[in-house]
Amino acid sequence: MYLPKIAARNLFRRSGRTFIIAGVLAFAIFFAIILETFMAGMMEMSFGNIIDFDSAHIQVARPELFDDNEDPLEHIFTPSEEMMTEIQNLPGYAAATPVLDFSANILAAREEFPVRVRAANPDSFNEVFRYKDHLIEGEFLKKGSSGLIIGINLAEILELEVGDFYTLLFREKGGSLNTIQGEVVGIAATPEPGMNLGTVMIDRSYVTAALGADSTVVNQLKVRMIDRHTAVAQSDNLEQTLTGSLGENAQVNSWREVSDMLVALEVWGQVETYFIVALILLVGAIGIINVVLLSSLERVEEIGMMKAMGLTEVQIVRIFSLEAGGLGVIGGLIGAGLGAAGTYLMVNFGLDLQMLYGEATLEMGIPIMGTMYGVWKPGSFILFFCLAVLVALLSSIIPAYWAARKDPIDAIYHR
Amino acid sequence: MGLVKLDSIKKIYQDGEISVKALRGIDLEIEEGEFTTVYGPSGSGKTTMLNLVGALDKPSEGTVHINGSIINELDRKGLALMRRDNIGFIFQSYNLIPVLTAYENVEFALKISNGNHENHSRERSIQVLEQVGLGDMLDRRPNELSGGQKQRVAIARALVKEPRLVLADEPTANLDSRTSKEVLEIMLDMNQKLKTTFIFSTHDPMVMEYAGRLLEIRDGRITREERR
Amino acid sequence: MKDLFKIAWRNLNRIRFRSLIAILAIATVVAIVVFSRGLILGFSNNTYDLYINNNLGHARIIHQEYRNREVLFSLDYPIDGFQGEGLENMLIEISQLEEVEYMLPRLKFGALYGGQTGDMVRMAGFGIDPAAENRHGLLPEEISSGRMPEQKNEILVGVGLLDKLGAEVGGSVTFMFTDAYQSLQGRSFTIVGVRESGLSEIDDSIFYIPLTTAQNMLGLEDQATEIMVFTSDRNRTEDLEKRLTALFQDRGGTESYSTLAWQRSDPLLELFIEVESIFDLVYIAIILMGTIAVISTLKMIIRERVNEIGMMSALGLKPLDILKIFTLEGAMLGIIGSALGVLGGGLINYYLSSAGLHVQSYADTMSEMDVLMEPAFYPVFNLENLVFSFFLGTIVVTLTCLLPARSAARLDPVTALHHDS
Ligand SMILES: Nc1ncnc2c1ncn2[C@@H]1O[C@H](COP(=O)(O)OP(=O)(O)O)[C@@H](O)[C@H]1O
Ligand SMILES: [Mg+2]
Predict the structure, then answer these.
(1) Of the candidates A20, A24, A297, which has its C-beta nearest C18's C-beta?
(2) B131: Cβ below 6 Å to ligand 1?
(3) What is the pTM of this model?
(4) What is the ipTM of this complex?
């Protein structure tokens, strides 16, 4: 057909104008794609760190444990054989480990600091978490020993080193105060800031003995899956089997449900991106109205002739809309191309966050440290490309209609 | 009834306070195959009349019949379709589409009408361009053509869809006398070969001699009419 | 000049729709600048003020060793005046400095509550000087019921904490703490007031008692852990800091104490301040995007009038005059557009500065983070922002119009006259 041909040739006739407006659209798309990649990378990294050091992929516990302000020692349980079998039979299962969390104050030298104590099984713990690679000093927990692993920030403020003595002061289930004492055996530096300050680790069998409790009690089972995406669905399945057929009083949470902050942050990031992109596209839309208008003013006689030849108004609107749509496609392609290049760089070379944010992320408690890598999001390429074309098409309609409505006689004789 | 019939036509332009009576009562009938020249000085109402005959405009009073339809009753889209299916236009300023080549300008006119030439539009377009003597300039853009050549493309464009009626408003006004003659001769040739009805206007007495039927118009009235 | 102005004005009026779109483009980008600048100013002002008023003062005096141990509520590094002469003396000396308006001495300590339910509530206790806090105003303002603690065993409790304690105004609460000599103590207080700041960081864990009581029970007579110093305006912090540094050098306080200006007291604020300065470039970029419409309009006007320009220069109009005409045209579009944009953006800011911009996901994020930030945006509505944005718009548009105007001025009159439009 001729209408697209005419539109395309007119686009290149004023190529300067075309490319500047296409550039604005391209900028909007590029910006959106990069921001999405960045956010996705940040989420990937944040969730990854939480999974690797705190939550694992799936956690099983008494429902009350997940409520805030509850004493974790109130909600211990002994995992049944059937429960363990169910977990091990999950499709995509990799490893599981029991933990017993409770709060305590750590006393060292003259200072005291509130911490979460995580009592873990030394052997299976490292199949689920990545602590072992992040011990910067000392060694990991040993079965039956009172050795304590602390985070690097805690070590700094309490001025603790490997071999120093510590005391943990905590309240037992009944309410009476109890203490555990021993030596610091390891110092960990993880990319999850929460674990570097507020959490210490100790052997679980030692703790249960000190509590005079059964050695089988836990308050959480942490499960690692082969793939994090299957974990979300499998956690729901597991909860149904456990509470349904096994009749357990249990709740199963996937990694996604662990951090309300990250989920909220993800949504906020998206809102922010869309808002900024909307503003840039608004400017682009006005640019397109401007281009279509100028274009129609320059071609008044041509429009007049087309009307004399019997083109209907709809057909003339179509010529200009096609032209604007072409602008959208050019802008969209450039933007997507630049976005792909930017994403490629972010995926392969990453971005040093400390350089970008300084110490601020630690302050906010977002679990990102070190180099962050981008993530390919084909969906956002398609979405923003279509958005650019759509905006271009829609904003061309008013000026195109304005041009098409012109009286053919006025147009031909350029009155 | 003839192809075109104007029935006591008046056209009044309202320009703010002033109203201009461009046509003051015209009765006219044009038969198929006629080669009509509308002659008159500038401002006499030639363009206004041609616009009415070409369904580009509606009269203030009176009725215009084209090919059996009363154009007073048509809406904008109806007028557009009437022009598309029955009328070819040629203007003083050529009005070719600058981004299309000579060949494309002609074929475009054919394509929008979706008429009988759907399947062999290429052959048809080339054929018409050859008839106006531009067989070797198919791929030139309008800015690569001279005035006479442009006007010949415009003629080819008007003729390609084989309309019942071709209107040419001062087609030679921008051309020198030799080129003017060539253009007129082509039009006359087409009229004789294809039996296409032509109406063209001019203020140049030189051009009058080509008329088959001559209408002289002054102050919005037909003052003289003769057939040759 | 008046003639040039007339020519420019007429040209713009020739095809009004076209000029209107160019104006609309400028108005839109200027409105975006007004809005986003108001938003950022509002956001950073709010955040800065929250940090300054709650934690940092305009400058904060602490013991050098205290900074890393602050999270521990360490009592090992208090401020005991210059050469150990005592806090009172130090406060008097500081208050005599020119820039100093008032000071808030605070004694922070950790405390534990072991209630009937058996679980422990960890709290932060602030020993405060009631008179100074009343002068500061924030605390009394945010008391939702009751009053400030004035003496002895009176305590003001955050609303979230009150809930955790299961207590109410008029009731009493007993908590444990370790004093400066490392011995565990207990003490009972009468709740006289509740603070509701709206920020869970503050409301859920902090209580306030009179400074003298705190000093007394912790064994830190005439001492505090920090002094927040306020001057008249946060922009005068540098002067304040100079005075403080001079005094501390003079009195031999630099060895053990540090004076930290609010800008350098918190990594998050440092990041914000840095980002804020980048934004001026972003604003210019936004306006440039709108300028595109003006430029292409201007270019088209010039293209239409090449003949006219040729004639004008043939008649002896100097290239500079031609440059002026077209720059003037662009400037007029810029001025009208910027004015409309400032109006639109100003209206948006005016409305949102009191109504606030509430975004659920943002509020969720903020409530989960350990930061002091309002859960909604309140853009600033002020004259400075409007004037700034107006001039930024006008200047950027006018400057970019110089480009097409220059190309018009450089047209050769001969070719211009024979141009076939
Ligand atoms: N759109 C219009 N508005 C006002 N007056 C018009 C308009 N079009 C034509 N006229 C007037 O109508 C009269 C006839 O014009 P026209 O048909 O163009 O004459 P011609 O083509 O013979 O030169 C002239 O006086 C002209 O000024
Ligand atoms: Mg005429």
Answers:
(1) A297
(2) no
(3) 0.79
(4) 0.89
